[in-house]
Structure formats: C-alpha cells, structure tokens
Design brief:
Elements: H1 2-34, H2 49-58, E1 62-67, H3 71-81, E2 87-90, E3 106-107, H4 111-120, H5 123-142, E4 147-156, H6 161-176, E5 185-188, H7 189-195, E6 206-215, H8 217-230, E7 234-236, E8 239-248, E9 255-264, E10 270-280, H9 286-293, E11 301-311, E12 321-324, E13 333-338, E14 341-345, E15 349-350, H10 361-374, E16 388-398, E17 408-409, E18 412-416, E19 422-426, H11 432-447, H12 471-479, H13 483-493, H14 497-503, H15 527-534, H16 540-547, H17 550-553, H18 555-573, H19 577-593, H20 597-606, H21 614-625, E20 634-635, H22 637-646, H23 653-661, E21 671-672, H24 673-685, H25 692-707, H26 712-715
Parallel strand pairs: 1-2, 1-10, 2-7, 4-12, 10-19
Antiparallel strand pairs: 3-6, 4-6, 5-6, 8-9, 9-10, 11-14, 11-15, 11-16, 12-13, 13-14, 16-17, 18-19, 20-21
Amino acid sequence: KALCLDVDLAMTTCITIQGILELGFYARLAYVEAQGELKVPFKDALPTREEQLSTLRNTEEFDVLVVGGGATGSGCALDAVTRNLKTALVERSDFSSGTSSRSTKLIHGGVRYLQKAIMKLDYEQYMMVKEALHERANLLNIAPHLSAPLPIMLPVYKWWQLPYYWAGIKMYDLVAGSQCLKSSYILSKSKALELFPMLKKDKLVGAIVYYDGQHNDARMNLAITLTAARHGAAIANYTEVVHLLKKPDPKTGQEKVCGAHCRDIITGQEFDIRAKCVINATGPFTDSLRKMDSQKTANICQPSAGVHIVIPGYYSPDNMGLLDPATSDGRVIFFLPWEKMTIAGTTDTPTEVTAHPIPLEDDINFILSEVRNYLSPDVEVRRGDVLAAWSGIRPLVTDPNSKDTQSICRNHIVNISDSGLVTIAGGKWTTYRSMAEETLDAAIKAHNLSAGPSRTVGLMLDGGKDWTPTLYIRLVQDYGLENEVAQHLAATYGGRSFEVAKMAQVTGKRWPIVGKRLVSEFPYIESEVQYAIKEYACTAIDVIARRTRLGFLNVQAADEALPRIVEIMGKELQWTEQKKNEELEAAKKFLHLEMGYKARSEQLSKATEISLTAQEIARYKKRFYKFDKESKGFITTVDVQQVLEKLSIHIDENALHEILNEVDLNKNGQVELDEFLQLMCAVQRGQISDSRLAILMKTAEEGLDLRGPVSVDRSGGGV
C-alpha cells in the first residue's frame, strides 16, 4: 500500500507540473523558428584544417574559446557561434576521441534515475529525467540520420514484478509527455519469446517493452562539431593547451584568464589564442585544466570506467534491445543491437584518468556472465565471440560549491573560478545541448558578453536537413551503389552522403558500379577515407574509430583494412613511407590495447593447459600431420600451401602468413603441434571463435578425405 501511495503521489506531482514545462519548451522552439534561418558561412565546403589553424592564430581576440572537442565542448561551441559570438574550439586529440565515442549509444532519460526519484520523492532526480527526455526528443529531431527510437525489452521472471515494472515504465512515458517516442506495452511469455527468441524461457512470466533513442555517438559528436564549423566557429583537433594566458583586471588588478597558449601536435608549431572567455569542457581531464588555472584548486572529478563489448548480431534481434535492471552486483546492463552487431555493457569501476583506457578481462567476463543469465541455454555465450571491447571514462564530479565536497553530483556542474575560467563537468550524452546552453548563459553573464538566448533547440545538425528515410534509394539508382552500402552512407552522412558517393571509385564489376569496400563484411567504402580527411581526420585511428566505426565493431576486420586506409590517406596527405609505417603501427597499437585485440589474442596464450581427451588429441594430431607430411613437429605457410594446391584452393601468400601468425605464439614463423593443440583446446572452450587456421585445416582435412588416396599413376610415381 505504501508503494502504491508513493507512486500515486509522484504521478500527481508529475501531472501538475507537466503542462507548465512543456509550454516552456515549445515556446522556446517557436522562438528559434521565429528567428528564421541562421547564416551559415560554410554551407558547402568546410575550411581545411590549415585554414582553421590560420584563423585561430591570426584572430585578434575571440569571444569564447572552448577547450575540449567531446559532445559537451562541441555543444558549447555550437551554442556560442549561433549566438553570434566569435568562437574557437581546440581539442588535443581527435573530436570525440574520449568518452563521447565510448558510450552505450543510447539517447535516454534514465529509467533507473526515475525509479529513484519515485521511491525517494526526489524532485531533483525527477527534473534530471524530465530534462533528459526533452533533450532526447530534440536530438532525435535534429539528427534523424544518426538516431532512431529503439524498443527495449525488460524481461520479468516474477509475477509481482510485472505490475511494479509496468507502473515505473508507464511513469517514464508520462514524464516524456507529448514527446513520448512510442507507448510502452506488456507482452505475454509467448509473445516475448517470439520477438526475442534468444531469451531464457525458464520461469519467464512476460515482458515490458519501452522506447528510448539510439545513436552513432562518435558521428553525432562529429556532426555537432562540423555544424559549429559551418556556422563559423574556428575549430582544430590535435591542438593542445600548453598553458592558460592571464592578464590583470584593470579594475581589481586580479589575474584573469584571457586565452591559451596552444601547440599544434602534428607540426609542433605553438601560438596564442586570445579570448574574452575560456570554457573548460575536457571531461575526465577537467582537473588538469583547472590546475593550469590554479595549482591550489581541489580535484572535483572522480573518474569511473565503463566497459562495453561487441558480439555478433545473432545474439539479439535486429530491432529489439534488452535491459537487465538488476545484475548480480546491482548494476544495470544493456544488451542492444547496434550497427548490425550486438553491444553489451556497461560496468562502473573507479579508475585513474588516462587518455588511453584499456578494457580489462575481468570486466569483459562480468558482462558475458550477465548476458548468459538472460539468454537461453541453447545459445552458447563464448568469450571468443567478443569482436571488440572498449573502456570509456565517465567523469563523475563533486560540486565545488557544495558544503559536502565528497558527495558525487548526480547531474552536471557549471563552475566559474576566481580568474574567470568557466568549467562544465559531469552530466550525460543526452543532455549535452542543455548543458552547453547553461554553460554559455553563465559565461555570458560572468564575462559581460553581448549575446542573445540559445538558438540550438531544433537546429538541424550536419547532414540532417536533407535526409529522408528513402534517401538511400536515390544513392543506389543515381550511383550504382550496393543497397547495404547506400543504406550505411545515408545513415552516416545524411544529406551529405551524395558527396561521398561522388568520390567513390568504379569497381569494374557489373554490380555494384561504384564503391569498393574496405573489408568484405562491412559496408564501409574507400571513398569514406578520402571524405574523412575533409572532416578533419588526421590519422588512421581517426578513420577506423570515429569517421567509420570499424574498430569498435570488429578489431580483426579493422586490422585487415588498415593497410589500404593508410595507403589512401598517405596519397591524399602526401605521407612519406616512414610516416605510413608509423601510422600503421600506431593504429595497430590502438586496436591491440584500447579496442580489446590484446584481450582477444591472449585467450589463446592463456590456454596453456591442454585439457583435451586422448581421443581428441589423437584426432587433432591426425589433422595436423596431414599438413606436416615430414613429421617435423611444426607447419609453415609452405606446408599449408602445398595441401591447398592439391585441393585447387588458392590463398594469397600474405593472407596465409597472417592466418598462421594469429596462432604462432612464439612468433618464430611456424605453428608447432603444441600451439595447434592449444588452439583447438581454446576453440572447444569457447575462448576463441572463428579461428581462420582451425576452420581452414578442418575444411582441408575433409576435402582430402573425400578425395581418397591418390593413385600411383596420377601421382607420377612408381616404376
């Protein structure tokens, strides 16, 4: 009864203030529309990076300098430039290279925050959810090519939980009001299994389906950044702040921040950027810039690592996610279809701030364990199916203005230091726009800048304006692209996908006419690498991680695509052979450490104990010696090539070398019997899947057995 009273009271409160809040939102949207079209100086072609750097160096003074090119920093730059403020933005790595590209890919209000708001009658938490749901609606509207509603299933295994969760999810719909994406609904057990056949059947009572938004986070971040650039903001990636510039206030004599001394990381050139206001939007690195301002400043950032894994698409339906509301340690796990794969996460572990977070094996196994709890026993969840894994650092913050400086702020904070440095920290992806608006409002007030109200509500992001759901059909018809490639281009570049299609090379085939793929199983094409340079990509990592998402989807596929990517970039950017090799090695290191390739490859080396039965060992030895005809105890590419020639199978020598290298643990150029047995043991345990050598040798063995013994006459031997 007490629970019902709490829910009734909370719902009454929501209804009372719902109309007032929505009136305010639509009034602001009407204001933006009434202002008419904003001027877009670079509507067609963007300035090059060199031109942007020249503007940064030669402008006498900007109104606003934003440090940080993540979602929040880019949002601040867009908010500022659309208020007619002279705006600059610098990012020491690539745009969206940090936390903003490593999210759960959801645009959501936060179901669990609403649960806390209801149970504790916490108005602050309620307003946080309310704001996020408004921002969710806005983001889905301004970038329709990069985002879409996604149904998420909450399976229920106890009868009493069905009305409990249903009331909570209906409250979520109610708080969204007229911006509710689609109404939630209850499913019977049979219907839930029909929609999500991989789900565990045992004790399943039914399920509740609700809707949130999903997006391509790195591309969304880039769209915000490029929109700011098109409106006239001077932006530059790979440009770090060395130290802040200060000058005495003429009235008080107090030192005030007036810009930053920066370094172009690519060329090493250093220069000053002067600005009336500097905004610190550096996410997990918030305290680093605050300490540049004042060494005595206390840390406010308490970083937390969130790991995600990507597994094959067959683990989830094409258009239905799953929410585990209470994992074994009380966390929430999402299990979502994304880019035709399945993404699962996240963890929440205290960590140190680093620019290169590494996914840990314990976190990967924790997620796999939780996934197993919800999937049918018929579905074997294997460690070897993890195609990529990454860690993102969530910048949780304490409020420096609060008396209790140890307590974590549940939302974001905007702080202005004594010297005028404006810091925006905390928050979530979904609310980047409202955070930016609040930050600019505070900056304008503190620095007496001449600017009107924010104009970013309803402002279409780059590529969104000319997008339609059927745009991909025109790409197929006008350019002769594959259907899958055309759909990918439309969903990535929106209205600008025609620019990418125009750059696509002729394949020389009957179909597709244009569009050479970087790797066969993904729809990324070579012209995207060329276009990425126009979007300020400077390294091969920029292309595999953020312009395309190949590194986040499949590390092995990304590794295979790298040589061609480096070749194309090298030609466009006039790289030397040494530079090409450096780029290749840097990108391989990125995949190895930050995208989980190291953790994946270690699964073989960890299987040191060969736990196979005598019968299995005999079977695998027989297979091995079909290749090792001389009983050397090892096989090389020559041995494999000879067997394949007998079967009239041709594999490129370089590809064959790569296949053996995956299993060659001691890197001596050959695969020994023990290494092969370790491989087969790891395959059986599920630690490794899709091993090319294992599949190749099994297929070749079956082919040899079907052929039978070769006659003396045919072999050319005998006397």
